Amino acid sequence: MKRILPPLNALRAFEAAGRLGSFKEAAAELHVTHGAVSQHVRLLEEWLGASLFDRYNRRVTLTPAAKVYLEEIGPLFERLSQATARYGVAETVSRTLSVNAPATFTLRWLVPRLAKFRAAHPDVDVNVETSNRPLESLKEDYDIVIRGGPDTFYGYSMRPFLSEERLPVCSPALLQRVPLRSPGDLQQHTLLHTSSLPRLWPDWLASAQIPALRPAATLTFDHFYLTLQAAIDGIGIAMGPTALVSADLAAGRLAAPFAGPRLPSRSYCTYVPDAKFGDERVMLFRSWLEREGTCRRFADS
Length: 301
Hints:
- The chain has helices at 8-20, 23-30, 34-48, 64-86, 103-120, 172-177, 200-207, 224-232, 242-251, 280-295; strands at 53-55, 60-62, 96-101, 125-130, 144-149, 156-162, 165-169, 190-194, 217-221, 238-241, 263-264, 267-273.
- It is of the alpha/beta class.
- The protein folds into 3 domains: 8-86, Orthogonal Bundle (Arc Repressor Mutant, subunit A), CATH 1.10.10.10; 98-162 and 271-300, D-Maltodextrin-Binding Protein, domain 2 (3-Layer(aba) Sandwich); 165-264, D-Maltodextrin-Binding Protein, domain 2, CATH 3.40.190.10.
- A 5-stranded mixed beta sheet has the order 4-3-5-12-6, with helices on one face. Strands 10-7-11 form a 3-stranded antiparallel beta sheet. A two-stranded antiparallel sheet has the order 1-2.
- The radius of gyration is 25 Å and the shape is elongated.
- Keywords: DNA-binding, Transcription, Transcription regulation.
- Residues 6-63 form the HTH lysR-type domain.
- This is Transcriptional regulator, LysR family.
- One of its GO terms (biological process) is DNA-templated transcription.
């Protein structure tokens, strides 16, 4: 007779969440995100055609039928674990580290350096998700969140690891076609904007004491990494964050036509949930970020 078995990953998530009484604690035990546990439980509910949990704002409770179901399958997981141990197969613990960081920072600063972290710590896998959403509005639980700061959030420890400033950058080829001898020469160029950072150019022009300057044209992008790519491609001049363009400046893909003024900017910081503080993987990654950040600022390039 064909066995009727539910999705086993979903069943494992339900067993952990039901036994612990918490999706968050189940996620920590299984080394996955809170959202993954929620998704697996929802999948099992759809497969069974029944609700397993009553959901409230910050807690969940088993339905009466789910309590009976858990009492039946819980011992099966225990027997499976014991049987596996008898065959000498040690339980393996996931070493995956979940990181959430802004997209442009991830693309231009973090990704080019991740190979070094992997070489130094080959036993730690890193799962990177990108988002620009405020930390307090993230729906998933992460081991490390990278955002601007310094800010204070309840339940998180914060440490800055990378500072930056902002100044105009462009393609060297563009400078050869239309030189920039002084900030006033920007009137002959296209200024590149990012819709989420509308004050960068007005603030810089005010600092350069030419607030009324009118460029030859403007071009606006919805993502900052597109703005920087447009500058590399010679389309116009962007306000470059020094921490994210230092490699391009060193390689000659970008040039900084003016030494100043430089706009101050918020530092990049790591935000670690209190429950993760002391986790070896988290501390390794945080310390690595701090070493990379302190030795690779724009002023040192």
